[in-house]
Write a structure and sequence with these properties.
Helices cover 39% and strands 19% of the residues. The protein starts with a strand and ends with a helix. It has ten helices and ten strands. Strand 9, helix 9 and strand 10 form a beta-alpha-beta unit. The protein folds into two domains: 115 residues, 3-Layer(aba) Sandwich (Rossmann fold); 116 residues, 3-Layer(aba) Sandwich (Rossmann fold), CATH 3.40.50. Helix 2 packs parallel to helix 3. The strands form two sheets. A five-stranded parallel beta sheet has the order 2-1-3-4-5, with helices on both faces.
Length: 254
């Protein structure tokens, strides 16, 4: 069976690099940038079987990509991966059956399943593609070694877990290996959870990562302060495994 051709559109960052690496095991992937002129040029030279768009960092000028696809690539399925806020910019294009949305956070397994469905691969055509899926990646940030050891032991059977004892350690890990979710201690010496969250969200490449606060504070005022930063969730200490499972299930959509 010939490998299907996918054009991967998006700014060059760790997310698109990971997508390119994983998809390359199963498809012929051509990596294009988010520059509209480059994308339209690639589409003029060769017609892919599917276009995969990562909308991270895309803004109004990138509508040109969708406009070209709408005019010249009506028969090519398009899968867009991004946040709700990013999708709002291009919402008028998503009314077409040709374009499919997948909202972050999302596992590569879900993306590949959607690609297979759009390409008619799988049970429908009798073609069975065996996929090597990556486990979800979790970053734990806490100044307590005991807490980190306990949480890692709780999660490592199902997830790939990395730990950081400070904001600086966390930022180094993020630039090396982008996680799917971050569990962040709110009360840390030096750069606390509030400052750490601010630094993470200030970098466009990491702004989509869901962050879950871990806190031992139960005062109403403090809880409201935590929620005011719009985390994906918060978990009170001492942490119960059941609560961790609930939060991860919501984030990964499992």
């Amino acid at each position: 069976m010939d490998m299907k051709k996918i054009l991967l559109v998006g700014e060059f960052n760790t997310t698109t690099e990971n997508m390119n690496r994983i998809l390359g095991n199963h498809f012929q992937v051509q990596l294009g940038s988010e520059d509209p002129k480059m994308v339209t040029g690639l589409l003029k030279m060769e017609v892919p079987d599917l276009i995969l768009i990562s909308t991270t960092g895309m803004e109004e000028p990138h509508r040109e990509i969708f406009e070209y696809i709408q005019r010249h690539c009506l028969r090519i399925p398009v899968v867009c991966v991004g946040t709700g806020a990013e999708f709002e910019i291009f919402e008028d294009f998503f009314c077409r059956e040709q374009i499919h949305k997948i909202q972050r956070p999302v596992q590569m397994k879900t993306i590949i399943e959607k690609i297979n469905k759009c390409l008619g691969i799988g049970a429908k055509t009798g073609e069975d593609v065996q996929l090597k899926m990556e486990r979800g990646k979790v970053l734990l940030v806490d100044d307590s070694k005991i807490q980190l050891r306990m949480l890692k032991g709780m999660l490592q059977k199902q997830y790939d877990v990395e730990v950081a004892e400070s904001c600086e350690d966390a930022m180094k890990i993020l630039h090396r290996n982008v996680p799917d979710v971050i569990f962040l201690d709110y009360d840390m010496p030096g750069a606390d959870g509030k400052e750490t969250l601010g630094r993470i969200r200030a970098e466009k490449e990491f702004s989509h990562i869901p962050i879950v606060f871990l806190t031992g504070v139960t005062e109403r005022k403090k809880i409201q302060e935590v929620l005011g930063m719009n985390p994906a969730a918060y978990i009170l200490k001492p942490i119960e495994p059941k609560r961790m499972e609930e939060v991860l299930r919501d984030i990964f959509g499992q």
